[in-house]
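can u pls check wat happens w/ cytidine-5'-triphosphate
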Amino acid sequence: MQIFKVGGAVRDRLLGLPVTDIDWVVVGATADEMLAKGYRPVGADFPVFLHPKTGEEYALARTERKSGRGYGGFTFHASPEVTLEEDLIRRDLTINAIAEDDLQNLTDPYHGQRDLEARILRHVSPAFAEDPLRVLRVARFAARYASLGFAVAPETLELMRQLSESGELQALTAERSWKEISRALMEDQPQVFIQVLRDCGALKVLMPEVDALFGVPQPEAHHPEIDTGLHTLSVLEQSALHKQPLTVRWACLLHDLGKGLTPEEEWPRHIAHEHTGLKLIKAVNERFKAPKDCQELALLVGKYHTHCHRALELKASTLLELLQSFDVYRRPQRFEEFIGACEMDARGRKGLEQRSYPQADYLRGAAQAAREVAVQPLLEKGFKGPELGEALKRERLKALKAYKDRASA
Ligand code: CTP
């Protein structure tokens, strides 16, 4: 048997990037030979094994044939006769279809090195269409390597468009899609992921609520970029520049969905978009089974982002309601993420990227003031149960009034 390094490990080494995961392909072996050497099988009928010591993945060279719709619709053909070239041709991109032996000799039948040089993400063959998840993968690679100058080849974008129109994307499971989406959002240029999905028509299928924001105008005074879709891309871009966590990036992507529902005659204003958007945010959250912290933050940011922008003008009672809604006493981190997302929203506007955002520190101070109200003196006065809750609220309101007075002095 012959063993080659393949995929991301070869690609990233050639790009001079750090390599974390190594995938291997094994040519000329049977499953029984692998088992005899101590490799552990990954699944019953999947020709992939884990190395007994390193735990790295070793896949038997295989060809794949699609036998039906969706991810279940695969039959694998792995046998010692399958050649390295036959294995590489069914892979997604030419830059992922280069094999390397233990002397660092490369086998590159589909010119992956040429495409690495030319900074092109190009599919290897029509077999690309066998796995519709690749539409999301290519968009994710575009986001990851945008800063190196990579772009999707026109013929690959065309194939992605055909796949998006074919209805195949709907067959993807929430789990597989979320894995790609969450990884893509954590790349340096997550806005490129959304842009590429839009360019090939996949955004309309996966997240029509986000796609609908393109072409919707906002008032130029607050939004010099005018277009709500472009604004959303800029907010995402800012979230990566400011190294925000996944929760914040997800909330940034979804914060303005309500603007896609505004009747045209009301444009460019979007009255109550914070409320109309909530059902859309919920739908997208559920479609991809986003983790609970992502779902929660997206809904809270959707509902309250304009409160944050107006923080300095809010009455003490409204400030208190905001802090109570976030349960800042027990969930300080979530409130910090909310402030982060709102700051990204404020900066994700053309020409305003460097603006200051005093609302952030102002709200942090308000949360601190409310948090400093001690429970003990109220317990000593004999308050309990719901009365204690009310008394605490009154004390916090007093503290917030004092805070506001101090801030405006
Ligand atoms: N692959 C593919 N189609 C997929 C998934 C994987 O063709 N839907 C192939 C590609 O050749 C890829 C390799 O399997 O390079 C390994 O896949 P994976 O580990 O998911 O990705 P990497 O390319 O290693 O990239 P990453 O750095 O994102 O892990």
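Residues 385-408 form the longest helix (24 residues).
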